[in-house]
Specification:
479 residues, binds zinc ion
Length: 479
């Protein structure tokens, strides 16, 4: 396994990565709350952590990557009410569309997308543990609150002081709470909203506890790596730590916290309330998945990044083409003539340079996933051979393979310069069953239009579904 350094938000410093049980790595990334279509900011986070998982796997780590789906939540319920739609149907619809975007972007590293609503037993168990340990209390209406004062470490990740959480600023005053900073982990049922039975009466889980119940079940009480964009540090990740560590009595919940920088829109934070949100599907249509991936990864993952269609995206497209054109030309020659292709060999100095560069790319990326620097190395390589060597068509298959090696590295790790034959395979095994489950749920509630829409969308992406007595089988047409 390669030595990897990760900037850990908890330590506020780079640390050498040491998984608890090497080579296994438990990776959790806060997933989508599918109350609406995914936007370009989501694309950035999920492409970055796709790169992280791909790179760790290349370097010998066995990554189990879990990304949850917050399919029941205030935002989902509010939006569903506005649109007079079933909340779970609304989130299924957006989630399937999100998976479609991920597939187009080449995000294939997630092992499992657990739905919050499939983990009610785990959620109830964790809430009960918190009550038993007197870290949570039952309010008069049957809601359950976490008592922040019971967790002395609260605020360590974000640097927030509990005293600063005055009502009106970050938290709302509420007569049901013992203290204004306490937060809800079980919400007593409201008529017309989804609800589940619990020992405290019907209701639904709060957001934070969904994540910690899922990670406790799938990754254990302590795990290696947690990722998300930095706007989730407070209150969400602070709450995750407080809940999980209070419930299990084990600490730390997470050994390394990775937080990605925000995607800005013309210099402003992108947000629904400012109305400056650009849809992810729309951006993939407009720029193409590879250019968008390149745009995301051609920046330090912790830095803010400006999404500016007239400037940054146009530049990204031009820059990407400077690499993709020669990479594509080499792949084309190799696909046509094979490695046996006759021609001149590469000068020895360039052969050695190709091998050294692949090592340098790994080394560069292992320094806190510095994809920007890795891409700069690819530009250097492209300049070097295109300015000093004769035309590509003169070279042998072996020479082309050496010229190509750095681009193939980028295909494997960064997901750039994809070749036709390298698309779809692993991802379908994860993605398709989720879509099939969403379709089964739609059929179970009699929403056949939605079920057919999911089937048609899968078909358009090359996946055929077949229903029989034992369930739904699927087959992906290979290109
Ligand atoms: Zn989360």
């Amino acid at each position: 396994m390669r030595r990897v350094t990760i900037y850990d938000s908890m330590a506020r410093a780079p640390r050498v990565f040491a998984p608890r049980v090497p080579p296994r790595v438990g990776l959790f990334v806060c997933g989508l709350t599918p109350y609406d279509e995914a936007h370009v900011g989501h694309g950035r986070v999920f492409v970055v952590f796709d790169m992280v998982a791909r790179a760790l796997r290349r370097w010998g780590y066995r990554v189990f990557y879990v990304q949850n789906v917050t399919n029941v939540d205030d935002k989902v319920i509010v939006r569903a009410a506005e649109q007079e739609e079933d909340p779970l149907a609304l989130s299924d619809r957006h989630f399937v569309s999100y998976l479609h975007s991920m597939e187009r972007l080449g995000v294939r590293s997630v092992n499992y997308y657990p739905y919050a609503t499939d983990y009610l037993p785990e959620i109830l168990e964790q809430i009960q543990q918190l009550i038993d340990r007197e870290a949570a209390y039952i309010a008069t209406d049957g809601s359950v609150y976490f008592s922040v004062a019971r967790f002395p470490g609260y605020g360590r990740l974000s640097g927030q002081k509990v005293e600063a959480l005055v009502p009106g600023a970050r938290v709302e005053a509420d007569a049901r709470k013992h203290a204004p900073e306490d937060f809800v982990i079980w919400k007593a049922a409201t008529p017309g909203e989804p609800e589940w039975e619990s020992p405290w009466g019907p209701g639904r889980p709060g957001w934070h506890v969904e994540d910690t119940a899922i990670t406790n079940r799938l990754l254990g009480p302590r795990y290696d790596l947690h990722g998300a964009a930095l706007d989730l540090i407070f209150p969400h990740h602070e709450a995750e730590i407080a809940l999980a560590e209070s419930a299990t009595g084990q600490a730390p919940l997470v050994n390394y916290w990775m937080h990605g920088g925000l995607l800005m829109m013309n210099g402003e934070k992108m947000s629904k309330s400012l109305g400056n949100v650009s849809s992810l599907e729309g951006a993939i249509d407009e720029y193409g998945p590879a250019v968008l991936r390149f745009f995301y990864l051609n920046a330090g993952y912790r830095s803010p990044l400006d999404f500016d269609p007239d400037l940054s995206l146009t530049e990204a497209r031009e820059a990407y083409e400077r690499l993709a054109r020669p990479a594509g030309r080499i792949a084309e020659l190799l696909a046509r003539d094979g490695e046996e292709r006759a021609g001149r060999e590469l000068p020895e100095v360039d052969e050695a340079a190709s091998e050294a560069l692949v090592e340098e790319l790994d080394e560069t990326l292992s320094n806190d996933f510095n994809s920007r620097e890795a891409i700069a190395l690819l530009f250097g390589w492209t300049r070097r051979w295109s300015e000093n060597l004769p035309g590509l068509s003169e070279f042998s298959g072996e020479a082309l393979r050496l010229l190509e090696a750095p681009y193939r590295w980028a295909e494997e790790v960064l997901g750039l310069f994809p070749r036709a034959d390298s698309t779809r395979s692993g991802a379908w095994a994860t993605v398709v069953p989720v879509a099939i489950r969403a379709r089964a749920r739609a059929r179970a509630r009699g929403d056949y239009a939605e079920a057919d829409r999911i089937r048609d969308e899968l078909r358009a992406a090359g996946v055929a579904l077949e229903d029989d007595a034992s369930g739904t089988r699927w087959d992906a047409a290979r290109e």
